[in-house]
């Protein structure tokens, strides 16, 4: 069963099992509205559940309260007051067991949430948390219908913005940390000419860094590359590029920052072609990009994903390289957590495993990590 929305034809939201092992959307991308300068909003106090049995997001604190639009409020009332026990309600034929009318309402709810959030991902997440808390407090929605709404609303957010929920405040803190580190002891430039992103997808995180650079007045340009640029309607100009682009397009990366957001651990080669032996060779995009970046003079890496090997971001060689004592992790506290916070879809230890690889039970617990190469690479020739 399919539903037509502004992203094209959608599968039944209650039976959708879409998951995101990388940054690419499973559905056709959205055309992002112009950025309206919405100030960054803090993360919601109660993250949403990501699977059966996950904890309820509970009641939002006063500082996180969201004033939903009248249209969205009417849809929430329709969703919570629906006669779920009425045996005469037509049931979706896909086997999900959810009334057809509720699947339609679920799609309408997601569209209204996207409309209200505009181009502000953090705000979308707050609206999501608010709506889920409202529905769970009502206690009237059938479990399958509630789970379908949770999953579909999350997938809609990921389709439009990507997986990582990074705002301008976090991006500004990253840039300031890099500039402060570079300025200490003459380790490098106090400002950076460029941020080079490989595998940018919809480039929402890159858009946040672009906004942060403008606010800081540091003049840093953000360059976005992807092997399938035509598949996205991105927030910034998106060009075709692979790790080789780092050396082909940049004479030196000594004044650059490499940005890798959810680098893949799938089984495609960096140019998108299948590996010689399927399901045996991890995608080496992250390690290849980092190696070329360092060889070209680069020393600063911003990596958004799971810090340890065994999740669904970054190939094994990439994680091995970062364990080298020459890489300093600049924003880790004594408990091993990132000091630059971001909201998350799956922050808890038992987050749903990635449907792309089922490697571990912690996929989705991403963080912002800022690395600095202590010993300068050899001069680029």
UniProtKB/TrEMBL annotation:
Top-level taxon in the UniProt lineage: Eukaryota
Listed Pro residues bias regions: 26-51
Protein name: Uncharacterized protein
Start and end residues of each stretch annotated as Disordered: 1-61
Lineage of producing organism: Eukaryota, Discoba, Euglenozoa, Euglenida, Spirocuta
Protein source organism: Eutreptiella gymnastica
């Amino acid at each position: 069963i399919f539903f037509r929305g502004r992203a094209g034809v959608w599968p039944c939201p209650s039976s959708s099992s879409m998951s995101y092992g990388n940054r690419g959307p499973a559905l056709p991308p959205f055309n992002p509205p112009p950025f309206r300068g919405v100030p960054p909003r803090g993360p919601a106090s109660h993250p949403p559940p990501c699977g059966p049995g996950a904890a309820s997001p509970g009641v939002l604190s006063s500082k996180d309260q969201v004033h939903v639009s009248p249209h969205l409020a009417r849809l929430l009332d329709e969703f919570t007051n629906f006669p779920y026990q009425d045996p005469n309600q037509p049931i979706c034929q896909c086997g999900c067991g959810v009334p057809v009318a509720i699947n339609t309402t679920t799609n309408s709810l997601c569209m209204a949430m996207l409309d209200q959030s505009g181009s502000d991902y953090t705000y979308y997440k707050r609206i999501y948390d608010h709506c889920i808390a409202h529905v769970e407090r009502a206690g009237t929605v059938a479990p399958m219908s509630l789970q379908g709404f949770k999953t579909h609303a999350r997938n809609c957010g990921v389709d439009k913005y990507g997986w990582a929920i990074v705002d301008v405040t976090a991006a500004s803190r990253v840039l300031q940390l890099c500039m402060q580190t570079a300025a200490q002891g003459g380790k490098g430039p106090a400002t950076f000419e460029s941020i080079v992103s490989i595998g940018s997808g919809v480039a929402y995180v890159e858009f946040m860094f672009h906004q942060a650079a403008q606010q800081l007045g540091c003049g840093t340009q953000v360059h976005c590359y992807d092997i399938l640029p035509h598949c996205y309607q991105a927030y910034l100009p998106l060009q075709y590029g692979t790790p080789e682009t780092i050396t082909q397009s940049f004479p030196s990366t000594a004044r650059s920052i490499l940005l890798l957001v959810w680098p893949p651990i799938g089984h495609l080669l960096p140019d998108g072609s299948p590996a010689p032996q399927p399901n045996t060779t991890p995608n080496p995009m992250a390690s290849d990009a980092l190696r070329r970046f360092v060889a070209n003079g680069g020393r600063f890496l911003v990596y958004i994903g799971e810090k340890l090997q065994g999740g669904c971001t970054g190939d094994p060689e990439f994680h091995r390289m970062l364990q080298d004592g020459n890489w300093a992790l600049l924003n880790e506290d004594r408990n091993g957590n990132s000091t630059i916070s971001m909201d998350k879809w799956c922050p808890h230890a038992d987050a749903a495993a990635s449907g792309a690889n089922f490697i571990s039970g912690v996929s989705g617990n991403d963080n912002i990590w800022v690395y600095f190469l202590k010993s300068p690479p050899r001069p680029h020739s």
